[in-house]
Amino acid sequence: MSGQPLPLAPPLLPSLLPCLIQVLRSPARMATLGAPEWEMLLRQAGAAGLAATLCLLAEEHGLADTLPPGARRRLGWARTAWERHVQAAHFELKQVRRALAGTGVPPILLKGAAYLVAGLPAAGGRMFSDIDILVPKERLGDVESRLTLHGWASTHHDAYDQRYYREWMHELPPMQHMRRGSAIDVHHAILPETAAVRPDPARLRAQARPAGDGFHVLAPCDMVLHSAAHLFSEGEYHHGLRGLFDLHRLLCHFGALEAGFWTALPVRARELQLARPLFYALRYCTRLLGTPVPPEIVDAAGGGRPAAPLLVLMDALFGRALRPPHPDCAGPLDPAAHAMLHMRGNWLRMPPLMLSRHLFHKAFLSPRTAPAR
Questions:
Q1: Within a 10 A sphere around the Cβ of 101, how many other Cβ atoms?
Q2: pLDDT tens by residue, 298-316
Q3: Which residue range(s) make up the domain with 343?
């Protein structure tokens, strides 16, 4: 390959983007919004789970005092709810640490809990519904037993669901605390056992870093790649924009502060078989959020580029799924796009024959065995 690197995506005019994406891309735009735009922005941010994030962005850019009183009040409520969430999350993390003390298993936090414990900008304003941890597969029994002794129990009692998680997926059935209702997902890998792409979890654990409070987190490149794999391998995109903004913040933070991060990122993606998710992450971060990716990394990430017809299709699908999930941003083709991405997520999770059996069981057999309510 010679000459200028191929662009990750054609540039999008900011004026064509939803109001929330415009503000995430350039927070200073908050100072220019009128009352109707603020109402639209607040609706979109609430639907996307980014209202508290907006409040923190306004403070970070010295804009808090310039916001209209109504917007400042509503964003302040979201910020307060997030602060309470952080307090509750720290309490639950202490309980998890206490439950696993003595096992000799250093739990690696993933996603939202990892961002929080590591003190990363991606934690700002972000809420998460469960605590995700990564442990060695051979220690799943010990970890599950200790969590059970401390009040967590599996939420999936159907025999098929138990087999689905324990034999084919990358995690135990989700566990919920019987008294507090807090949820924890215990992973032994970041993608399912049945997926065509299976990054070696031992490689991830080998480079994990201590993050305080007895926990570890993934190394910077691995954290970005896990976030990308999670976002671009799933079939549900209600929090798609939030996931993309997570990636934007991780890339900006590590790219500025972590020596050698940009050079190592595409190399690590190839090692973990995650070149395609990285390509999508960089493509849509730069296209929608203006993430400053060095030109040489654009070129290096090109190894994950799909064939042109598929890329055109994925641009159309992700271009809809990564917008705020609000009627202001909806189009007539959105339901079809989300349905196709849902099918794609299932397709990536299992080979065709297993997938057809699984879908048949969930559609026709599981409802018959479900307990009456």
A1: 11
A2: 889 999 999 999 999 999 9
A3: 14-369
